[in-house]
Amino acid sequence: MRVLVTGSSGLIGSAAVRHWDALDCQVLGVDNDMRSTFFGPQGSTRWNLECLESETKNFRSENIDIRDRETLLNLFAKYVPDIVIHCAAQPSHDKAAEIPFLDFEVNATGTMNLLEATRQHAPEAVFCHMSTNKVYGDAPNELPLKELDSRWEYADAADWNGIAEDCRIDQTMHSLFGASKTAADVIAQEYGRYFGLKTGIFRGGCLTGASHSGVELHGFLSYLVHVAVQGKPYTIFGYKGKQVRDQIECSDVVKAFEAFANNPRPGEVYNIGGGRGNAASVLECIQKIEDIGGYKIDWTLGEENRKGDHICYISDLSKLRRDFPEWDIQVSLDSILAQMIEAEEQK
Ligand SMILES: NC(=O)c1ccc[n+]([C@@H]2O[C@H](COP(=O)([O-])OP(=O)(O)OC[C@H]3O[C@@H](n4cnc5c(N)ncnc54)[C@H](O)[C@@H]3O)[C@@H](O)[C@H]2O)c1
């Protein structure tokens, strides 16, 4: 079995590499450390590539830019993957406004390049596309909410499980990142529906884990653990710190890709996040880190929220659980935090 992983040095990509390498598959990574171009040296994922190279048996990686169509076509013609896990992206909501063309070229055109290379040279392959809940823009904020002591909560009991895949994706404010990812999401669906390619579209909530290179503009939980352990200040962006996110550990994301690869449904869309069980507000996460790690976080509340940011976002996992009953969340939020704190302490 040949697996091709884009963004292989990043959080989700590296978890996919480890997973399929452990299953004795051949794994080819595609990553050009563009994260250091987006976020500077602290955002670089090269350290993770070095870990992968020392830990794995059947992995090699190519320093290829997914914007480079010809090189990708040649690579797919030679390698002919059975599974493509597409995780390379400009991942930040806020950063995209500073680099609008680069954001679109990586997220939208880069995805198109990979889909077309798959269609031309590996049409039988399963293609898992890592999308985002930002495709819904700020439409989830239209649900009625109530304010509790430490979090915003859905006011209507019918919304308890969170946001499902039928939430609308147009006529909402996405941020440029959300718009470029929406283009990629829809085109990946289309390669499934129109061409019959085995594409699966996974709309992530907050994806996290100890190998996240968190920075202020992306990877909130990882960055929060970083500032806690390193004794740096932290600013919360608006909503009184009561904004709710659902956190999923990267290995649970990869297991969903595997379940899809075993039983692909071309063009299907799935929300994937920690769901109700792993949902917490920023204030609650701060409290948990203080309780688990014994740190005191020096945080302040900024008045202004990030444009288009969700107030309460919980991924409804019902469709994923229904289509893949063997899949479920394995790693709790407390375990995620404990692992992240330990990893940060060892840096
Ligand atoms: N982390 C989250 O909270 C989250 C939430 C929802 C969706 N997602 C999506 O999941 C996917 C993976 O996210 P992640 O957190 O692992 O990101 P990440 O930033 O940790 O990893 C992405 C990797 O892609 C590489 N890359 C970027 N541009 C590239 C290019 N042009 N060519 C080759 N490689 C390139 C980067 O160097 C990096 O190593 C992305 O599509 C992201 O939008 C992430």
From TrEMBL:
It comes from Roseimaritima multifibrata. One of its GO terms (molecular function) is CDP-abequose epimerase activity. Transmembrane segments: none annotated. The keyword Isomerase applies. SUPFAM superfamilies: NAD(P)-binding Rossmann-fold domains. Keywords: Isomerase. The gene is rfbE. It is an enzyme of class 5 (isomerase). The keyword Isomerase applies. Belongs to the NAD(P)-dependent epimerase/dehydratase family. This is CDP-paratose 2-epimerase. Its EC number is 5.1.3.10. It comes from the Bacteria. Residues 3-273 form the NAD-dependent epimerase/dehydratase domain. Pfam families: Epimerase.
